[in-house]
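Please produce the structure of this protein holding nicotinamide-adenine-dinucleotide.
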Amino acid sequence: MSRQITCTPPAGDRSYVIEIQHGSLKLQAAYLASLAPRIAIITDDVVADLYGQQLQKQLQQHKLEAHLFTFPPGEQHKTRTTKEALENQLFEKGLGRDTAVIALGGGITTDMAGFLAATYCRGLPLVMVPTSLLGMVDASIGGKTGVDVPYGKNLLGAIYQPKRVVIDPATLVSLPKREFANGMVEMIKHGLIANSEFLHYLETHVQALKNLDSEGIERAIFESCMIKKAIVEQDETEQGKRRLLNFGHTIGHALETLSTYQLAHGEAVAIGLLVESYFSMRLGLLDGASLIRIKALLQQYGLPLKLPAHYSPQAMLDAMAMDKKSTKGKPRFVVLEAIGSSAECEGHYCMAMEEKLLIDGLQWMNDDLCRH
Ligand SMILES: NC(=O)c1ccc[n+]([C@@H]2O[C@H](COP(=O)([O-])OP(=O)(O)OC[C@H]3O[C@@H](n4cnc5c(N)ncnc54)[C@H](O)[C@@H]3O)[C@@H](O)[C@H]2O)c1
Ligand SMILES: [Zn+2]
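Below is the modeled complex.
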């Protein structure tokens, strides 16, 4: 079954369709031909072997001039240097404004190829083709593109909307389990902040989703994309409501940093979801049974919820001081009122915690989740 979502960012005619369908990767030639006569497929080396070369051949069979550009996988390659090397390769092929970019891969690829598309010849048409679950439900929607610099993640970039997002869930068969779990965390986050029925769906379809049952996974991706699109349509540049998408990430980012990336993003955010739910409980909003439910769900999808070491509250506070929601170095957190409902906090969609509660929560995290 094919599912479509129209995403309409505020101001200007920049709406685009998110298409979710098994096998959709193979059905894009006519659409791409309508976009531009020349195509630059940008992907990492892993995804190039799995799907990139195949896509290039198909497009060539449809008489499109399709080129494949690749870079090594991994966050350490999401840099200006990689972007520059890719740009030089496009210039060397003589590609100009008559070219469309296909960003084929995980979130690293969609972020970096998206940023390249935003700046190359002052902007080329962009089609996002996410192949990781995280890319499908998170990174390819909302227009944020960018690269990392030594000063921090995603600090250089642009808001640049694609012409279309093509999601082919069939590509998930080759995705490693740990990467699948990373994507599930963002889906669970979407359910927690905005839709209790969707969260219930995730609770009751664990095996089907892990087995990539085609109807189940399409539906889950659809619902998850609907939640993200509804938020980014209201707040493209993260002045307010888009902050909700940061649920779990204030703690999560600090853990990624302190563990020197031993914890994958999804693993760190899973712990973040739990600790930030704990704050919500201690504020008297979320009930204790919901906290237990959230923990169980994360575990069912294979999230270990284990800290590799003890992280002192002070080290966590220091790591959170630079969080984008912080004011005067004090972290602010998205808060749940119940499963599926987040607090507006007078239009800020996040709030500061009292020092004691903050320390208690961080202590609870260490006591409950530390391996040692
Ligand atoms: N723009 C946004 O709004 C946004 C939102 C969330 C995350 N992000 C960014 O996304 C990035 C993380 O994305 P990610 O987790 O997808 O990482 P990723 O792009 O590195 O993909 C994960 C790994 O899976 C491999 N892979 C991808 N698809 C595959 C498939 N179908 N089969 C086999 N292997 C496959 C990749 O080669 C890579 O090794 C981060 O850089 C983060 O900043 C951006
Ligand atoms: Zn995330």
